Amino acid sequence: MTNRPFVALTLFAGALFLPSSSSAQAILKSALKPERAIRRDIPPTNMIRRAFAAGTRDSTGRPGRNYWQLWMDYTINARLEPATSRVTGRESIVLHNNSDSAMRTIVMRLDQNIYAANVPRAEQVPDITDGMKITRLSVNGQNAELRTEAGGCFPSNRSGAPAAPLTAPRATGLGLTSACIGLPTPIAPKTTAKIEVEWNFKVPHVEGGRGLRMGTWGDTLYQVAQWYPRVAVFDDLRTGGWDTEPYLGTSEFYNNYGRFDISIDVPAGWIVGSTGVLQNPEQVLTAKARERSSHVLESDSTRTIVGANERGPGVSTAAGDRLVWHFVADTVSDVAWGTSNQYVWDATRATIPGGSKIPVHILYLGGHASGYASVGQRTRHALEFYSKLWMPYAFPQITVVDGPDGGMEYPMFIMSGAGAADHETGHEWWPMMVGVNETWYGFMDEGFNQYMNILSAQDSRNQPRNVDGPGQAYGRVSGDEREAPLLWDANYGGPMYSFQAYGKAPMMLSMLGGVVGDTAVTNAMSDYAKAWRFKHPSPWDYAFFMSSALKQDLGWFWYYWLYTTDAVNGSIQGVSTAGTKTTVTVRQDGEMPSPVVLKVQFASSGKAIKAMANSRMTDSVTAIVTYPVDVWFSGSRTFKATLDFGGRKIEKITMDPFARFPDKDPTDNVWPRAAASALP
User: Fold this and answer.
1) Most buried residue, 76, 146, 247, 420, by CB count within 10 Å?
2) Which of 540, 563, 586 is where one domain is finished?
3) Same-domain status, 599 and 663
4) Same domain, 559 and 456
5) Is residue 619 domain-shared with residue 653, that is, in the same domain?
6) What percentage of residues in the chain have a pLDDT greater than 90?
7) Does an H or E element contain 224, and which?
8) How many distinct structural domains can be found in the chain?
9) How many beta carbons lie within 10 A of that of residue 638, not counting itself?
10) 546 and 600 share a domain?
11) What is the pLDDT of residues 342-362, one digit of tens each?
């Protein structure tokens, strides 16, 4: 804080010795309001520097020669008691330490604790429960000391120095959403460790509102997620490797890939839908349901597997007291499930490019039938459209379930009605197949998803692709002090979290399309998705990859969109004509630069229109003239565009006619000014 007055005082003192007051004022004005300096690089932070140094990532934006990530094998057995809404579980986890580092600790995610009292959270929860109760935890056969309170993974004395070495695992923070296990023996690189956990929790009840990514309606329908203790991500980006971010409720998740073998014990008569493929249909389904299911892949029609009037053991499910539904999911980052004794079960199919056909399962309450009538068709369109747009859907099925949360996604499993079906299905690409860190960088999944939802909606209506408008619209947001830049940790995104995570990326990609072309953008993003399929890209990987794929130096673009909240704020300052040449003076008052794109409309008759090298005719009296962003790199805020079309009278000029570049006031983009009202 002391530097600012010192600089101002120095300028003032220097001005006392200037030869005249007018020259002093000119120098001061120049010093205080310099011409714009365009930053053109992508500034690295410590985490990406570390990855570059280790060779796990590089400036091409692809995984580096030394890239690694953990792999998990989960075997989970869970039992639901509807009378108490309690889930009791036990799990065995095999942690594959594929890193080059020994692990002295293990960080566990206990996200269910967000429902416990006195736990930090950024969002109101619908119910307060006792959280996730860990009753037993062992590592490689050694039972751990269990501590609910926060604390170091290793005991220390009063001075803070480490106490005696551990002789058994020590788990702390079990009452929080991120817990730490100190290990007596580190897990060596390229080896495995076995973790066993027993736990239970009460599924939160939801009354009259929306659940927080899960919940129960009464004691007849359950959406169950964030339901098992899971190993946090250990990656090449963070100091110490472990992702220790708390689950605060607004931001979502960052998970390891692995294989899940899940057994869910529920009363007979309860239908279960889950991530994964059902392994024992003959034990849990009736012969009638199995026969109906066998025809699902034959057509795009929607078939009823279990109808609204088919209820109870031996009718909606196999007979018995309780049934265990067994699912297996390979190469997924998470598992969620839903169950009800009131579900109607419909199914249809989707055809994935390459010819594979997969089932689309829809589980909903009979009273919600009208709201689910189009879910199968919408989900099918999303699966097929996004498979063509990015890369083929990689999973063997998808299940859509009714319940308290009407808009949440997990691998092969979404909580949704018709309205959110396209969006939630879109998440199967990011973060399910491209494993981005949703917690920190929500724009890399929610924002990208919002962008592709625009394209999907247009395709479903047989409309041409059009993302004109969002890029320019950002100018009306830019400058709001509440907005965090895209690279700010979204877990602490503040009052404009939703805009940061959802709203800004479509604007960014709209502008990028205005620079390189929309088809080039989606082609490059398709290649990016394939390069990082089932891996963990960072924003730097994305930016470097896109620049490389688009074969352009886009450092300036990524800097202003990812690191700042700046806009272009362009305008036409004036137009003059001499002979056959017309000079358009363009100004950009914002810090973000952009290409200069002019729509030139000519009189219907007159001298022949002569072609210009940097122009294209869209009809007989309209030209689009483009000057690259480079015209601003010298630092000037004004640029004079010289138009020479042979002397045909120009009646109107519109700058940024496709509304791609952030601008707070587009009305000054038109000449003559009286034509501003004609803007679309």
Assistant:
1) 247
2) 563
3) yes
4) yes
5) yes
6) 90
7) strand 221-224
8) 3
9) 12
10) no
11) 999 999 999 999 889 999 999
Quote the tokens at residue 182: 């100190």
Same domain, yes or no, for 451 and 559?
Answer: yes
**CA angle in degrees (0–180, nearest 5) for 336-340-341:** 155
Q: How far apart are CA 196 and CA 212, in angstroms?
A: 27
Q: Does the bond joining 680 to the residue before it have cis omega, within 30 degrees of 0?
A: no
Residue 521's SS3 state is: helix
Alpha-carbon distance 45 to 539, whole Å?
Answer: 11
- Domain extent at residue 639: 570-678
Strands in 61-177 per DSSP E: 71-81, 86-97, 103-109, 133-139, 142-143, 145-146, 170-172
Position 18 scores a pLDDT of: 39
Say if residue 605 is in the same domain as residue 559.
Answer: no
* Type of residue at 413: F
Same domain, 580 and 486: no
Residue count (the chain): 680
Asked whether residue 600 is assigned to any structural domain, the reply reads yes
Average pLDDT over residues 164-176: 94
Question: Considering the domain boundaries, does residue 576 fall inside one?
Answer: yes
SS3 at position 378: helix
What CATH number is given to the structural domain containing 672?
2.60.40
User: What is the tens place of the pLDDT at every residue in 359-418?
Assistant: 999 999 999 999 999 999 999 999 999 999 999 999 999 999 999 999 999 999 999 999
Please calculate the CA angle 273-277-278 and round it to the nearest 5 degrees. Answer: 70
CA distance 340 to 363: 9
* Element (DSSP H or E) covering residue 31: helix 21-32
Residue 32 pLDDT > 90, yes or no? no
Instruction: Summarize pLDDT for 112-154 with one digit per residue, the tens.
Output: 999 999 999 999 999 999 999 999 999 999 999 999 998 878 7
